[in-house]
Fold:
Amino acid sequence: MKSWIWHVTILSAILGLLLAAAVRTEQRGFEDGAIPLTRIGQREAIVALQKKNLDYRKEILDLREKNTVYEANIASNQSAGKILNQQLQEMKVKAGLVPVDGPGVVVTLSDSKRKAPPGLEMDYIVHDMDVRTVMNELWLAGAEAMSINGQRVVLSTGVRCGGPTNMVNGVPVTAPFVIKAIGASESLTSALNMPGGAKDELGAFIGFEVKADEKVEIEAYSGSTQLKFAKPIEATKDEGKG
Structure:
């Protein structure tokens, strides 16, 4: 095997280990029970965790940028290497590992400023299911990339209620929820505004704003890419024989 292939393989393996280590460190506070039980304590702990989280994720993005430069340098003077590097960069875009921009929409979901009827107060604040409803509408309408409050939505992204906040990629985020999506602006807007759609359903209770934009910028995913259980299936000797 040519040396540049080994270089790319080694660099990718090192990057994966660094990402996994950073995310494990980030999650340790939750696993060790370091989050207080009181709401005030939780908020203070969340603020501290958010700061640490931003530091870790900035470090991860810096490492990824350096790795991309190394990959390009390795492949710069070899045709086969150039093809491999091009395919690698394309896969990184699809996996959400690099920032992207393009036409699309920005959707803002916010807690209602109206006074809720007695007993219906919970209907007038944004819940995780509301965010997921908008996400699903956008994917079905052809969105190619998406983020929520700066968190890139990838295959492993989950959105769930986490006490006073919602959790996106394991990171606590609060309202207003700004959902960015890249795709055909007209199609995305029409899908959200169609009769009986997400805006009709949710806009009667919470703040729901849709804005089309010619250039929507979406951040790179900065969480773990390590798989613990899913393994590629090896091809058998008889595979492909007719």
In short: The helical segments are 3-31, 39-75, 79-95, 128-140, 185-193, 198-203. The CA atoms of residues 5 and 80 lie 10 Å apart. Residues 100-218 form a domain with the Alpha-Beta Plaits fold (CATH 3.30.70.1880). The first strand starts at residue 100 and ends at 110.
